[in-house]
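TEACHING EXERCISE
Course module: macromolecular assemblies
Task: Read the component lines below, then compare them to the predicted structure of the full complex.
Student: A.B.
Group: 4
Components provided:
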Amino acid sequence: MKTYLGEFEELVLLTVASLGDDAYGVSVQLEIEKRCNRSISIGALHSTITRLEEKGFLKSWLGGATQQRGGRSKRYYEITQAGKKAVSETKSMRDELWSLSKVKLSVK
Amino acid sequence: MKTPQPPKLARKLFEWYCGQANVQDLLGDMDELFHIRTAGKSAFRAKFIYWRLVISLMFSYAVRTRKRKAQSGMFASSSFSMAMLNNYFKVAARSLYKHKYFSTVNAVGLAIGMSVSLLLIVLYAHVCTFDNFHTNKSEIYRVVTSHHSDREWELAFAPFSIADDFNNGFAGIKKTVKITSGFSADAFSGKLEIPIRGFFTEPSFFEVFTFPLIKGNASTALVEPNAIVLSESTAKKIFNRTDVLGESIEFHNVGKFEDSIATYQVTGVMSDPPANSHMSFEILISHSTLKPYEQTYEGNYRAFASYGHQYIYFLIDNKAALANIKKRLNDFSAMASKRANVKIAFHVQALTDINPGTELVALTGGLGPQWDNTGFTIFGIICLLILLPACFNYTNISIARALKRSKEIGLRKTMGGMKNQIFFQFIVETILIVLISLLGALLIFYFIRPEFKSMMIGGSTLDLSLTWSILLLFIAFAIFTGFLAGVFPAMHFAGLNPIRALRGNTGKFSSKSVLRKGLTVFQFALSFCFIIALVVFSRQYRYTLNYDFGFHHENILDIQLQDVDQSRFRNEFSQLASVRELSLSSHVLGTSRWVGNTASIESQDSFDVYQIFADHNYLNVVKLTLLAGRNFPNEVWQHEKYTLVNEEFVKQFKLGSPADALGKVFRIDGNEIEIIGVLKNFNYSKLNSPIEAFMIRMNPDKYAVANLSVNFTDAFSGLEQMEATWKKLNPEQKFEANFMDDEIRETYKAYESAIKLIGFLGLLAISISLLGLLGMVVYNSETKTKEVGIRKVMGASIESIVLMLSKDYIKLMLLGALLAIPFAVAFSDKVLAIQYYHVSLNFWDILVSLILLITMGLATIASQTFKTASTNPAETLRTE
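Instructor-supplied answer key:
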């Protein structure tokens, strides 16, 4: 096991990747809330983002202030090469487990 | 509908919490989420949502990490670095050096301002050490009395019956000490009589208090009757040595407790009681010396004078016993109150609470020096009144000169200097200058200390020497002062907008000028009060000395008769060429307050009448005017027959006209005496009290002073001749003679002290305000050099420019004086009225004071404005 990604970490990474150029705090939060249909706390989200940055899976830069934000800039996130590797490793491990499954996993 | 705004408090809290961490994006995210989530919700609900966001983030790992990063980042400032501190000192020193003029004005002002406070610190520190040399200091208590009769009396003494009760075995009390104060007699050693004061006390005195014996046995020294323990210096005074055990001392004029002469045997020599003891005494005499009936107290609780010399101290086992002791004292209080029919309460007072007292006013009748908080409060207020203007000056000048420093601050801020760093820098700078001022203040302190000691009552025993701990206190005080003076400028500088500061526009400056003007007005009001007080007090002093007392007091020499035989004295002295008239009397007119110098006349209503005893020649010496009747006849005295009274006497006894009063007979002290003369009113007493009924009586037994009307050609040789004559009559006692004028002047010495004190404080206050004024004028002239140059080029005269530069300050000074007048009037009316015959503040006093103030102010202003106005405009305009 080379890297470990928690469920929420994986979720954040994938969401950042899915949002492309428009990934910043609020958009990530709203996207996760919409897709997972659960409400997440802003503190938890930013803590996870900080951890991911520290692990080198995300990088960020400032830009794009809007009126609604009181003129404050957004911090945009982008998934790094290491991040991509981490999610794909997680995915391939999952795929492997899926394929090895002795029980029929598909539910209808 | 108005869109809801995020609650400000929550955002401020978050910003404060995050400090220097960069959280702009988080704040933005929160705003955005707020707008999305709160659409269509109530304002309260919206606020709640935002608060939840804030709290959620504040406790998150994200913010914690960002804060940590900010602390170790490149522009971090909360980590304290020596290099930066070093830089502050360097910049401060350079700036002080560069602006020598302002630095000097500031330093001198602060030094003057702090000097008086240093005295307060030393004095208070000394008073705090009182009685800390007793080993049992926290277990010693004394019994004190509250007596509510005609007024409330808080007394330091209590009747001995309480001590006797405690001595009968009271759980918790280890030892009691009874002290009887008031021993005062003259120790007779060979030829000299040395006045000595002390107490009677018990052997337990040395167990309870820590006064070590150098010679003798502490446990037995005060057991036997007539045993005496001397302090070391007293032993040296009487015997010139300290190994005096077993010697006996003869005391004269013991009076109060024993026969007039008493002999005591020395059983111990103790080291001198320290200056910081609340009891001061020279000797201790065994309590068993007192006659037994005087030791126990059964008398009258109502008249507390009857136990006014009885002091009770006790040593306790444990604090728990205090509750029982208090309960027992309550029983005593109830008993005494009932018996005396006034409210009497006995309390305990801890030794450590005596000095400085915990109450506002010290107890009446202490055994030694007492320091109450009222005195310290007044002293403290005076110190503040002197210190605060000095701080104002610094604040004023620093803020006004912000322009000069704004470039530096702008640059510092641009380079990442944080608000608190700038603040700290200026506080450091202020503290530096205050520390320099401290040296100046110490110098002033050194000069005023002896003066202060001589002014205080009991000041000679004060220990006001500097120790290391006191110096540390001084430094702490200086740092405090620096903070006081520097906090406003530092806040001002810290709050500068870097862009504006770099452009040389300090913006907020004008908004503070109201405050600055206010401070200047206050300073001048204060100075003006001092000047008025000085003027009016000097006038009262002069008025008092030149007052027509109604009797003659020039060229009159008063000689203390002491033990000389009166007729021999009269014979010898009247033969001297320089003596014109000679009379004997009991007192000196115009001096003492004549307390207790009254007699009751037995008539229908008995009145108290002031009196003096004098012989037939007295009227000729002091030249009193007879309105009716005659002087005492010159005849051999057998018993009291006649009296001379004053007009007020006649009026008070309703005797009609002076002539009608003649021949009226009164009974006094068992004698029938007849009024043979009525005198014009004269001020027999100090001017503090009005003239009341007064009589002159004849009785040689009472004469104590010889009043000689003299006619010296050469005062020195004349006095020498008199002294030689005195030596013939009485070789044992000192010749004590004073001119009546001097004695009267001595009586009003308090005025001299008051004038000196007010003058000194006034000088300080005025110099501080003038320094402040000077600073402001210099600054203003500096900034206006260009303007002045242009005006001159355009044809303005020097006078008009001086007027332009000065008029604002003159206005402020006048305003200050105007505001001070009501206070000065109210204050001086109160204080001057202490004396019954007094002057009152008039228009001329105010005018004189005003002229003084304006003159000093103008001189200060003119010294600068003339310089500015007369500079050649070519010089000032050239640089543009």
